[in-house]
Amino acid sequence: MARITMKFGGTSVGSTDALQRATEIVRQHVLDGHQIAVVTSAMGGVTNLLIEGAQTASSGDGERYKVITDHLREKHQQAADSLLHDPDARAAVSENVHRLLDQYEAFCAGMYVLREASDKAIAAVSSLGERICAPLLAALLQQSGVASQAIDACTLIVTDEEYLNAGVSWAESEAKARHDLLPLIESRVVPVITGFIGSTRQGVVTTLGRSGSDYTATLIGAFLECDEVWIWTDVDGVMTADPRMVPDARVIPVISYAEVGEMAYYGAKVLHAKTVQPLVERNIPLRVKNSFNPSHPGTLITNEASTTPGTVKAVTAIRDVSLITVAGRGMIGVPGIAARTFMAVAKQQANVLMITQSSSEQSICFVVPEAKSRAVVAAIQAELAYEFGRQDIDSAWADNDVEIITVVGAGMRRQPGVAARVFGALGEHGVNIIAIAQGTSDYCLSMVVRASDTETAVRQIHKLVVLNGRNQAPQPLDQPDSQPAEEREPTQ
Ligand code: ASP
Ligand code: MG
Fold this sequence. Notes:
With 492 residues, the chain is of the alpha/beta class. It has 2 domains: 3-234, Acetylglutamate kinase-like (Carbamate kinase); 314-466, 2-Layer Sandwich (VC0802-like), CATH 3.30.2130.10. The chain is 40% helix and 20% strand. A hairpin with an 8-residue loop joins β10 (286-290) and β11. The chain is globular, with a radius of gyration of 25 Å. Residues 320-322, 370, 400, 402-403, 451 line the site of magnesium ion.
């Protein structure tokens, strides 16, 4: 018996077919004797439409939100009609659909009149998709013979007042979640909790940021001391590379939270550091699985993923970045230039993705998002005007025609040779490396290359370095780890 929080993403509850699959997955695991808590997203695309209707209303379009409301009524009504056989259950779900969409129309009508959409109002509007979906999924579980109850996370997750990207008060939320949910799961009632939303202490609805349902799931999983959290999505797991760029990209069987964190930072669409933090702290593993291919083992993410020394797990690329260089012979031995340069960058709210400085101190290079590059260069020129005047600094410029390639893997730690293989793969295919950085974590190695070289670089590194690694299969749930202790490399 295991206790598992299962989160279903938008596509995994996005159609009648998907809802049926999700129901069947939960039913099977309940039948297998597990205690399950479910966290659900809105049906795929619904949150976007809700927000679009509100925004167009606030900018003077009095029609679009009505079209969206009608569409959403029909979409959810159709799902309820075709899936729920019991007339009472169907009536209860459809009453909820129409009550919440009536609210939506009223909110949008107000925004249209006021020509205003505050963060508070957008949060209220965007919470509706989850609040419509959870009772539908709970009713489907009931119908399949699984005792279930829909729970509005506004009653569990306590947040601050940053309405669209709210910070969660863990202690208060934990107390509420344990109080309300433990009696349910212990008596085999599956709570179906709305992802993505919470409320302030005053009871005002907030959201945890776009795609926030994953965070709801990791919080609930941590609060309930689950054995694992499973994220059900529409891909087989975390991939070794973006499959659109690398056709032979594969699912990574086991990876650590630290490695996934680097991948998220460097452009892969995977779980972000904040999202997995509750599980990292409590040492709870997470699985990413495909609800359209549930027998695939997916990816297991843990604090201590075993790694084969010398291997690399994934390669990612970040586009739309710009390499800024500040150069001049007079910089040698002058303290404070780097500090003032980065203060100027910070004032532009530009996130620095990578930094390198040559040991001769004649230049500093760093990478920022391309959208900020003009402002950053101007800010540096202003900040260092005196040094420019004295010709201690010759120039500060942006090169937009670059991208970052990052290889990630704890197997690089203290292992010579990985960088040589990466650079070898690039050299053989004529890819020039413009700048290199390696974090002290040793989990990742980043290189700046010409934008036109990115695809070749990613494919060659994937072929020659990532696929050459030996990856082991994930341990099934409830089975002791058979990996010998000395092969396990702690990554935290
Ligand atoms: N429905 C929300 C969104 O689309 C949250 C989520 O799906 O995770 O952002
Ligand atoms: Mg660029």
